[in-house]
Batch of 3 targets.
Target 1
Amino acid sequence: MLLLLPSSPPLAALPPATCRRRAPARLRGRPARSSADDPPPPQRAPLVLGMDAGGEADWRELDAKVNKYPSVREFRCIGEGGEQTEAFARAMLAAAASCAAPDEPLRREEVQVRPSRTGKYVAVSVFVTVTSFEQVKATYDLMKADKRLRYFI
């Protein structure tokens, strides 16, 4: 709503309103694409971290740069739910517990089991104190051996 005061000029005397949108921050400073014939920008390959992505040597190198041991590590895995929920959760807990430090048993607050909304899948998170890369790798190897596993982080 436009409020005109008695001393305001008549509407016809006002310059036409212009609405100028600012370009999004990610596009500012970039030249506009001039033609549909220009090739699209190169697509980057998705970054995948894990044993299958670049092999064990690459994973060891990244682990040495990022992780310090001993540390508490979360192993999160997603697998089949439904009738398999309890069996899958127990298998993932056993995999994590077998590689954990023997003097530190798993406590109830270090384990989370969450079924999906539909119950088709279940997410299991286990917090374990690990002392080396070999423990982490052994845990992932045991988890990968279970056929009910769909995804792990």
Target 2
Amino acid sequence: MEDLMPNSGRSDVRTVRHSQMLAILLVAGCRRVLAAERDGRGRKASDLAGMSNGKYVRIGGCVIARQRPGTAKGFVFLSLEDETGVANAIILPDLFQKNRLLVTSEQFLMVEGTLQNQDNVISVKAQRVMPLSITRAETSSHDFY
């Protein structure tokens, strides 16, 4: 790494390495907290593939991506990460309007709705969205509106 940054001092390289390590520890810590708090959050992301289409489920996790494509007619797509993987949620336009601030600002969310498995693309069509109080640690998501 030092060879790739010839004008940089050793302290700069240490700072980059330190930042990378902190990011890894934060993710690992959030996953441990999520695992410990599993009881009230329903299904793990890894459970969804084995469940039947149309089943009512509850999922929860750290919001890692929010998407609201202009071509999606007001639908919002969330990716929620828990200790086992990533679960996708679809927020209908009317539910988004009722919960706009919650959906766009909360770090951790719990979503209840109907499981959809279409051509092995698994998502939860949300009927209810709630904040999930896990930690005050700073997280970030990739938000595209």
Target 3
Amino acid sequence: MILKNSTISMKKIIFLLIVGSLIFSGCSVSSCKKAGEASYNVSMGPDGYFGECCEGLIEISGGLIYEPANPYADKNGCISLEGGATICSDCGNGICGKGENYCNCPNDCQKCINEGVNMRYYKDSKILESDLKCCPGIGQIKPWHPNLEQYDNSGLKIIGHCTSKCGNGICDKNESTYNCPQDCTDCLEEGEYQKFDNTLLCCNGLNETRPKDSVYLESGNSISKLCTAKCGNNICDQKTEDQTNCPEDCKK
């Protein structure tokens, strides 16, 4: 959702009034915030004030990001997300620092996608998927699953992730044995289930199939796939198979 500057200014005035009342009442205010740290977040109400920026820094919008494939982006590929924090920044020093991007600090940053940001693509976008690039020094990895198309809550297709963490020896968020095998070694064994809230894949030699209806319902709709190599062995495994997920073994 796009925020208007007038709305941001009014909310900031409210924040300053709240901070003034805290100081007047004797409450302490936190020390100054360094470059890349949030000074306040309007979506958090009175609890969203974190402190003034240190001397020499300016405030930029952390909710203003570069996402050219987003249908709500302006002609420069920028969108403003509701609830984004205000960031303290040394924008103008020639270095694209933490919290900065092309849209909130064009003097320092290129038109590219920053660390930790999903590469999202809208099906009716006027640009090509190949036009989406991670910023220099940041690697690009594929979505975590080799076969499933992934979408976020806005209906935007996730085509990759910009991250410099793949290769650090830790299986981080959005990484899996498929897109970052050097970090992710755990996999699901025979008879184990994939869940919607993690990125574990089936071990080599196992196939993905739908779970039994009864197992799916008992899980509270939390599992997505069964990892197995047994379907097709002419034995109906009562624990994991039924006619819906392995009709060749479980005949009527």
